[in-house]
Write a structure and sequence with these properties.
The structure holds 2 protein chains of 2 kinds. By secondary structure, chain A is an all-beta fold. Chain A has strands spanning about 5, 10-15, 20-25, 30-40, 45-50, 55-60, 65-75, 75-80, 90-95, 105, 110-115. Chain A has no helices and 11 strands. The chains are: A mainly beta, B mainly beta.
Chain lengths: ~120, ~110
């Protein structure tokens, strides 16, 4: 199956700094990528949807200036958490879809962010 | 708007027993339905999906699910549980706008 790789798998940062998380589709072109956030023992909450070359569409309640999403190529999307605070600590997961792969979205392995 | 309800945040079954994880959905259009499994600190792995056609869907690791439109359900089953099945399971729905909406998840515990 198609592979989506996230990097880093975990990161610890100081409060007030910014952190960038990468999501790459390794063997297919991802026309659409999604970013999710998962709090401990909870479900995945969709944060935003991004299509290559266009601005991301954010879900209600998600601060677009805090969670910057870039989808500059068909194989890479990045999520930057700006001015991180401890409440931003969470598990962030991306997924990617391709028109050629029809209905299935492929998920990255997730990034554990801890803000101290 | 779409939604997914998973009944039971925790389910425990004995090794070798039947696994049944319940999922009901709400969708204004014919949905795509999914079951994903998540192991600790990992991403999601697709178990199976329903799009169109046969309502009984077989997936990986011996799991299967049946789409019942009249009951708006998509319950996940496995005839015989293995210890390796212990994980978090998510039911999800998509109405083809590319967004996947997840249920709250059910943690499956396997008792020896």
């Amino acid at each position: 199956g198609a592979v989506v790789s996230q990097h880093p798998s975990w990161v610890i940062c100081k409060s007030g700094t910014s952190v960038k998380i990468e999501c790459r589709s390794l063997d297919f072109q991802a026309t659409t990528m999604f970013w999710y956030r998962q709090f401990p023992k909870q479900s995945l909450m969709l944060m935003a949807t991004s299509n290559e070359g266009s601005k991301a569409t954010y879900e209600q309640g998600v601060e677009k200036d805090k969670f910057l999403i870039n989808h500059a190529s068909l194989t890479l999307s990045t999520l930057t958490v700006t001015s991180a605070h401890p409440e931003d600590s969470s598990f962030y997961i991306c997924s990617a879809k391709s028109l050629s792969l029809n209905t299935e979205a492929f998920f990255g392995q997730g990034t554990r962010l801890t803000v101290v | 708007a779409q939604s997914v309800t998973q009944l039971g945040s925790h389910v425990s079954v004995s090794e070798g027993a039947l696994v049944l994880l319940r999922c009901n959905y709400s969708s204004s259009v014919p949905p795509y339905l999914f079951w994903y499994v998540q192991y600790p600190n990992q991403g999601l792995q697709l178990l199976l999906k329903y799009t169109t056609g046969a309502t009984l869907v077989k997936g990986i690791n011996g799991f299967e699910a049946e789409f019942k439109k009249s009951e708006t359900s998509f319950h996940l089953t496995k005839p015989s549980a293995h210890m390796s099945d212990a994980a978090e399971y998510f039911c999800a729905v998509s109405d083809r706008d590319d967004k996947i909406i997840f249920g709250k998840g059910t943690r499956l515990h396997i008792l020896p």
